[in-house]
From TrEMBL, chains A, B, C, D, E, F:
Residues forming coiled coils: none
Keyword terms of this UniProt record: Hydrolase
Record-given protein name: HD domain-containing protein
Domain HD/PDEase positions: 157-293
Matching Pfam families: HD
This protein's record includes keyword Hydrolase: yes
UniProt source species: Paenibacillus cremeus
SUPFAM superfamilies given in the database record: HD-domain/PDEase-like
PANTHER family: 3'-5' EXORIBONUCLEASE YHAM
A Gene Ontology biological process term: rRNA 3'-end processing
Taxonomy, superkingdom: Bacteria
Amino acid sequence: MSLIKSFTEGQEITDFFLLKAADIKQTNANPPKEYFDVILADASGEISAKLWDVSSTDKETFFPMMLVKVKGVTQLYRDRLQFRINKMRKVTDEDGCSIKDFIKSAPIDAIDLVNTIKSVSSSIQDQDLRSIVEFCIAKVGDKLSHYPAAKGMHHAYYAGLAYHVVRMLELGEFICKQRPFLNHDLLKAGIILHDIAKTEELNAEMGVVTEYSLTGKLIGHISLSSNWITEAALHLGIGVNDEKTIFLQHLILSHHNLGEWGSPVQPQLPEAVALHYIDQLDAKLQAVEDALNSMNDSDEWSAPVRVIENKQVYRAKR
Amino acid sequence: MSLIKSFTEGQEITDFFLLKAADIKQTNANPPKEYFDVILADASGEISAKLWDVSSTDKETFFPMMLVKVKGVTQLYRDRLQFRINKMRKVTDEDGCSIKDFIKSAPIDAIDLVNTIKSVSSSIQDQDLRSIVEFCIAKVGDKLSHYPAAKGMHHAYYAGLAYHVVRMLELGEFICKQRPFLNHDLLKAGIILHDIAKTEELNAEMGVVTEYSLTGKLIGHISLSSNWITEAALHLGIGVNDEKTIFLQHLILSHHNLGEWGSPVQPQLPEAVALHYIDQLDAKLQAVEDALNSMNDSDEWSAPVRVIENKQVYRAKR
Amino acid sequence: MSLIKSFTEGQEITDFFLLKAADIKQTNANPPKEYFDVILADASGEISAKLWDVSSTDKETFFPMMLVKVKGVTQLYRDRLQFRINKMRKVTDEDGCSIKDFIKSAPIDAIDLVNTIKSVSSSIQDQDLRSIVEFCIAKVGDKLSHYPAAKGMHHAYYAGLAYHVVRMLELGEFICKQRPFLNHDLLKAGIILHDIAKTEELNAEMGVVTEYSLTGKLIGHISLSSNWITEAALHLGIGVNDEKTIFLQHLILSHHNLGEWGSPVQPQLPEAVALHYIDQLDAKLQAVEDALNSMNDSDEWSAPVRVIENKQVYRAKR
Amino acid sequence: MSLIKSFTEGQEITDFFLLKAADIKQTNANPPKEYFDVILADASGEISAKLWDVSSTDKETFFPMMLVKVKGVTQLYRDRLQFRINKMRKVTDEDGCSIKDFIKSAPIDAIDLVNTIKSVSSSIQDQDLRSIVEFCIAKVGDKLSHYPAAKGMHHAYYAGLAYHVVRMLELGEFICKQRPFLNHDLLKAGIILHDIAKTEELNAEMGVVTEYSLTGKLIGHISLSSNWITEAALHLGIGVNDEKTIFLQHLILSHHNLGEWGSPVQPQLPEAVALHYIDQLDAKLQAVEDALNSMNDSDEWSAPVRVIENKQVYRAKR
Amino acid sequence: MSLIKSFTEGQEITDFFLLKAADIKQTNANPPKEYFDVILADASGEISAKLWDVSSTDKETFFPMMLVKVKGVTQLYRDRLQFRINKMRKVTDEDGCSIKDFIKSAPIDAIDLVNTIKSVSSSIQDQDLRSIVEFCIAKVGDKLSHYPAAKGMHHAYYAGLAYHVVRMLELGEFICKQRPFLNHDLLKAGIILHDIAKTEELNAEMGVVTEYSLTGKLIGHISLSSNWITEAALHLGIGVNDEKTIFLQHLILSHHNLGEWGSPVQPQLPEAVALHYIDQLDAKLQAVEDALNSMNDSDEWSAPVRVIENKQVYRAKR
Amino acid sequence: MSLIKSFTEGQEITDFFLLKAADIKQTNANPPKEYFDVILADASGEISAKLWDVSSTDKETFFPMMLVKVKGVTQLYRDRLQFRINKMRKVTDEDGCSIKDFIKSAPIDAIDLVNTIKSVSSSIQDQDLRSIVEFCIAKVGDKLSHYPAAKGMHHAYYAGLAYHVVRMLELGEFICKQRPFLNHDLLKAGIILHDIAKTEELNAEMGVVTEYSLTGKLIGHISLSSNWITEAALHLGIGVNDEKTIFLQHLILSHHNLGEWGSPVQPQLPEAVALHYIDQLDAKLQAVEDALNSMNDSDEWSAPVRVIENKQVYRAKR
């Protein structure tokens, strides 16, 4: 099996891929001809591809997010590798392929991630905080197991959100040992809930965000998470003006730190300061790690990484 | 009766004032002596004052927000007028003074302002929006009649909040006539609720903000208003994901326009754009009008006005 | 008649349009062939189009800003609708078409707009201010009836400038009733003159700006308007150092509010503050209204609107 | 004669000084006593001083900008040297003092500076540019010989404006030799006129700015200079739309480079780019030189210099 | 023993303190009298104090950073507690006081901190990196055991620098376990050296920075640390252009992340990203912890904390 | 001989050019065909060109930075002139062409520039400064004679760096005459060394930067130059903490003035202030001069110039 990430120029390939996009376009010729402008993907990356002669059957056969078997050859076009498809067919049951093997995922199994989150959640000793967290986890339902953490900034893949939360919980535990003055219950609750309304802000399938939802655009995940806490408190009979409720909302609302980054208030509780910087540390390092993993074997520099000022990262020889 | 705003140097004054602040301080002398460092106020302005010989009776007699009769003289100190108190006594019932006459107030009676707001509120034709607005008005209670709109930026006086809302409602009505594509119901609701949680964000008495509340600092009035709408919707059985609920929250959340001004999302509904600019127009012009009203008769330039980049405003001769 | 804004994919069209642009280009074929890359427009919008086989007669027949009759079909290309022209001919007198029907215009007739401006101008009671305003209106000549208010930000169509001014005058009148301390004469003069030198800053035809003029680039409309006032004052024998002259120049110079938005001084007169925020309110709401009017019937979100931070606007179902 | 700049702690002084400020203040004692809070100055610097026992005669004798003879002693107060006056009297004719000897001045004689400016002005070969420049020089009158270039940023002393212009003319001549593509006439005109309206923007006496004028605040020297050019062109029968007029106005309007620094347009002519950077180079270096000259002999670091980001400058031992 | 942090109004105190500052000042009386304006400190905080009658012996007896025994009383002055000293004497050997007990220190013993740093340093497996680190540690000498990490931002106390480094090393170890793709050797070296030249940038005694050194102002600790690495490499015969040398310099140079925060280059190695965010997390949380520790027992809100946008931190009741 | 800069549409050309780039690409045809996408250059400018039928011999014959003789015709494509190559061959010795004649160069001969720099260098009277400068010049070697000063901002051509330095030295000499308080030795050294490590930061051939080096990206020329001075001082036995060494490093480190422009410290020596503004003046004016020189004969406005806020420059008719 050949990973897309390891493709080189002029290679002949016959293999299974995910048809991530499949647009019918027309050449500039007169009369114009139709062709398929395609993105092929596997878990290692993706490549732009063309299928030049498109029959009317083809147009009714191939659709995005379908698994296909293709035969073709890699070519260099404007300094970038692309793929010329000579043959393409749908995958059948006999091929024994599962879509989960062709998409990017967190390196830890989604079920394990969700279990960890639930287990940490049930370890929160303050009953009110625990109930609010569990109410929100229940509200998310099974999206918790597969949602990405963002559209493209970081953790943008299957179970990316849960993976981000789990790593932050580990860091939070370490920091609370280093600094016992921090309220571990509050920090745990803040970490689990900080991005939880991304499941309402974003529309995503198989770990890929297709768009922001109407609610996502008009309210945003920060205020949505805060609304969920109000809803949970009212439902559970916890006062919306109780310090616990206010503190937890403060953590969520302030976790982007500055107004220009989307936070209507700035951190003023120790745990809010901790939450912001734990989030930063995890998001930035993951974005760097993902960028390194997406590099072709021959590259020295990664693609520009948005969350570190669009800088490229250098991969040292080991 | 002599208005503070019209005081000139070397004037002898015997009159009633509000004792807005009254701190006991010590001179640098050795041994130090105690004196009262005082702020006297009336509806036209305020002046710093000193009462040099303080008896122990005095210390148990005079407290902030008390009405007093004083006798003394104005003096120039470091280019600013201040007042030297020679005699001071508490006001008695016979003096027939009411504290309301000594504080800054909106130029329209508070009762009329509240009635206007309630009347506009009941004119909202959409039943859900109307119910949410009325729920929030009920929640505020009588604070609606006397709260200021801010600590010092604009409308910082008795009934300033209600006055700001009424003026904006007038403007909103005009704009909706000019531009019928706007949803007047939604704009009315947005105007009435946009600053309503300032009553929870700020602690205020007699139109003067003493401090931000804990909730005010940690959540802020923008997110608090949004929370109130969630609460109202849940209480009234309106869906928290209904477009009406979302639209109204969007108006509140986006009404400061930019992240660095406190809004976690930016206006994306026509009424949200209208709300922001109506708010701006009213707040800035009121701040200018208030600054002109606070000028001494002999001044050409007002004090710096914070909401217009700390610029001073020139008062033309008419 | 089919409006461009309502075109859908695969529609056959035979109708009149404005040929807004008509560039001769070459295909990548070897040898390359020439084709027309065209923009067709009507009052509802515009669409990119191609005429693939171009004869040498065609090249001498078709030029921008000409009315044409075309026959062709709509196609989807890279997710955007474009038009394939099969036949195209010039419009003849018998077709009975007028170019005014094919361009975007203000919703009020240009003559009425100009009359309103002149009528408000003659209502200015201060004789000096009135004379300066009338001098500038005379200087602009008939450009006042058709110039747009900007290249693309807002009011970018036939008579857009006059429409913007009229709406602002209405708002100004309302505000002066709300706040009688404002000098209505000065505000009227400021509103009429604030963008008047756009007629010198921009080169425009039929409501479309083709480019900035040399003077526009080197001086800009703000300083140009200020120069015009100096010129008017000298011509009319009004002192250039009279408060009226200075106040009016101050309103013009400060109406963009901040230095980074082009104003060399910041508002320091009440009417200057009013002018800036009235301008803002009108420009932003008009940009939103125009964006909604330009949406295709099936869209939920408008194109990004530059003057509101490039945000898209959501169109609610009514 | 003892220079203020060389004063050390505990020194007894009897000498002539300029009474730059003389405020009557009151001690905190009860009853308070009056004293003179004074600034003494000579050409080398200034020092804060107190005269503790003030008679009513004193109050009618001593006023700012008067020359006095004082006897007293230097003292350290809150880490800064100040002066305790024991005796003070007005200067008489017999003392033979001239105020010019007690104020900061440009290091070149004002008459020579003005002559240089006029001589360069008459060397401008283009007749229109020369006439405009000469019109403006005539308009300024004798303020050209004594005005400072700013309130405190740089060249804030007697003849500072003329000195700044002369140094820039020298630099401009050098640059035009290095780069013959520059239009020397235009650059000369731009240098002479770039700050010329500071004489209208600022109210100044003896090289010291007391305040901004009304016109200065509302219009600013950049737009004022531009207005002057319009006035000159109209008066001289030169077209206000002639390239020369526009170019010269462009140089003036753009010479602060960015909008946030006060320029409504940015440099787009080579001479405008040259003018801005010549102005920068001269202003910054002069501010540094002035800061070094104001240092006490024992200091290693100057006071913070506003125009170089409030940095202090280190004076190396030679 | 009474801790300064627990002082309340009107308390009589007789105890040992550090005389952190002792300035001789003069009253405003006529003739003025001399008094001592003093800062008394212990490990819990500091308080402003006055000794009103100063003899000439006193002036030769008391100097900053001396231990004293004082008797006096606490007073409220302008809302702040201060201390009136009635008696003061120098500490003698019999008093058995050590200055170390009166200054703020890291909560871990300096010797242990230094040992940890040295031990981590010797655990670096790459010989070149280890040698460079050890060269720099040797160059710092015993300053490593007592220097603060900053003038006032964070870790501003005895051994603050070493404490900051040790905590970061712990965090670095944790992160390298979470993310094995990171080069632990490089990160260890970067953490130890990132602020090491603060020992040259700042002049400090007993954990208190008195001022920036000349080199500190002109070069800054970031470039100084980079210079040290060049020096180490040349001394040790390691190529200045070796990747190791360059990588380590990159970590140091980029550790403030952005240009406006002092870094001439931005992080482009994974370890550089890690270093920046580990530094942030530790510095911010320590500043918050220090602010909480400095609060009086009755406070709800801390003093403004500079490194978190000057926000105050709320201390929840436990 | 026809200069590229003077090409007009439809011109037939047979001449020698530099093949600055030569990429093999494929048409969109099916099957795709290969063609050469080429940039032809001479000293006056460059033009995009196509050679449509590429043989396999061609692919082994033509490479970038080779001189060729071509025959073809100019065409307009998307409003820009490009060139269609009909014939192309390599240059032979008989053609008598030298690559130096086909690239952009400084207007002064490289040898003369280097001689000037060395001569100024040897005129530095302070022996330590002179030795450090000469050490660095020796380290650069012959790159000094041909390196450009930047990738594209200014002086981006053969010997651009040396030309920039020489012009700045001339300006520096003039300024030191105007202001004798400046240390001319230090300024000379600063000017020569300020950009010297661009020779290590950039990879360049024939005056064209191909990319930033690894060291250039991770360290940057500012810190590299500072490192070189450390190296020079250690090698020459000059103290790295001597004021001279520190001063020179300060000049280099601060010469971009602000942190966001890449300087880790800001100018705090008079010569550092001078260096920054001399650098600015020379770089901006050169960028403008180069932009004017690159204009086609028929243009009125230059291409946008990056270093002056991307503004275009107007070329006045003379």
